[in-house]
Amino acid sequence: MARSFDPILVEVIKNELASITEEMAIAVWKTGRSAMVKTGDFATAICDGQGRMLGQGYAAPFQLSFFMAMMPYVLDKFGGTFQPGDVVVVNDPYAGVTHMPDVAIIAPAFWRDQLVAFTLAYSHHTDIGGRFPGGFSSQCSETFEEGLRLPVVKLYQAGERNDALLDTILANVRVSDEWLGDVEAKIAGCWRGEQELRTLLDKYGLPTYQSSCDYLIDYAERATRAALREIEPGEYVHEDVFEDDGFGTDTASLALKLTLRIAEDTLTADFTGTSPQARGAINLPLSMTQATVFGAVKSIVSPDVLPNVGFVRPISVIAEPGSLVNPQFPAAVGGRAPLFFRVFDMLFRALAKALPERVPIPGEGGDVLHLTGQKADGTPYAMMDIFFGGWGGRPRKDGIDGVAPMSFGSYGTIPAELLEREYPVVVDGFGYVPDTAGPGKYRGSLSIYKQWRFLQPGKAMVRTNRLLRASEGMAGGRPGALSTNILNSGDASQELPRKAHMHLDVRPGDSIYHVVCASGGHGDPFEREPEKVLADVKDEKLTIAGAREQYGVVIDPQAGTVDWEQTRAVRQARLEPVAAAD
Fold it and tell me: pLDDT at position 63, please?
């Protein structure tokens, strides 16, 4: 007998599922040990009893995407044998996870002795053992150097903890109490999710829950296909060059090629022509490549469409085995983030060729300071501070300063007070860098700087994006400023080599001044409204000199107003050579 469809009930269940993942997130956030968890570098999600990702909740599109890639490995290993109280742990980049510091927890959820769902949580850990602290240096040449690789394995079986496994893990990580605290927080989040799912099923029953899951998955597929039908069929190509092989070789030049093929209601992202996998750990695992594609496509689909298994059905990814975007075991992948940001940028620029009035310049940043050592009392610590530049110029609006890329979701910035309380470091400065935003009718985001001063000796690693090639503008917009790193030691200051990952030994009193790259602008800068230029000057995002040079807007420094006569003259003078050339 066919079930009757109740759209209101489906919407209610959709939002109840979202609230469950948020309850899970609150449990993780409140009980997590590391500063990364306290700031939001984690995600929670729910799959149905078949292992199908349902989407929504406290996770970004790309995070949900690699959850999808991970679940088949979990089901292949343990499908049909799950018991109440089981907890699976995995961080294997060759089992759906994107690098080993990301540790995922998966727990089956039961209702009246029937498997009805899986609850999932992951977070980035500040250490996973290995050659370099943190486990995400680009200067590894195979995965065995990167840390402790956990295959799909049970940490709990029928409620009994595998202490031998846990003891082995804790013996191989640098800050074991923090590692364990974050894992236990994720387990608490998953168990909280199961508790809330049982309440939902008690209220609505299993048939209603299952039919609602089916509908949400099918709806996402239909909506994605409808969005793709709005794009002119054809091929949209974007090529780039990545300038770092993981070891900072001066002559490194790695080809990146993307062809987006739109055919009726399907999209294929074809990376054929991309260079072979690198010797260093900058390679992008296939699960991360797929997640990057799905995250970019989500930006052109209605916001109410859940990024679940239905959403990805019309999307295909072609990536040659052994390439930068589909490395083969045992290729190292820990330092994949700079390449990820570049591929994300390529996807948006290819989409912009298809939808120029809708697609913005993507965000920049995701730069990191990783610091390890001992506190004054001798206890070990591992600190990771991540922050972002912001979004690029959009077809009808400015970029947004200081936020994570749009597919990142919940990532925040760690407060200076938290860093200074937990670790032997002082944040001497954190703010905008004037005149750095990519000029445009709609400007890009500004560079953001941060300066850390160290109170104890330690080992630091700085991860930096956009050291050699700027975020370019669109539709006549100009590039944003490049990233910079300066080490201050005693009375000496030196600009650090322009590498994606830089390792340093720091001493008490040393400081690192780091500038995140700015993003490109959208549209001709001389078409920007002078009032907006003036507002940026008043907000100290732009200097008076920068206003004239970048936008042809002359500001009266005494009155603090636009000098309209001189502005018209400067802008006209810029147009005259163009007219003469025509």
Answer: 84
Q: Are residues 372 and 472 in the same domain?
A: yes
Phi then psi dihedrals of residue 223, to 5 deg: -65, -40
Query: pLDDT, tens digit, for every residue of 441-460?
Result: 999 999 999 999 999 999 99
CA distance 20 to 388: 29
Q: How many residues does the chain have?
A: 582
Contact 194, 14 (CB under 8 A): no
Q: Which of 528, 547, 563 is the last residue of a domain?
A: 528
Give how far Cα 13 sits from Cα of 9, 63, 178, 307, Å: 6, 22, 36, 16
Characterize 535-563 residue by residue with b for buried, 16 or more Cβ atoms within 10 angstroms of its Cβ, and e for exposed: ebbeeebbeeebbbebbbbbbeeeeeebb
Which tokens go with 47? Answer: 């799959």
- Last-in-domain residue among 178, 202, 219: 219
pLDDT single digits (tens) 262-319: 999 999 999 999 999 999 999 999 999 999 999 899 888 888 788 899 999 999 999 9
Q: Is residue 66 helix, strand or coil?
A: helix
Is 458 within 8 Å of 506 (Cβ atoms)?
yes
* Residue type, position 398, single letter: D
Specify which residues 448 forms β-bridges with.
432
Whether omega for the bond prior to residue 330 falls within 30 degrees of 0, making it cis, is: yes
Residue type, 375: K
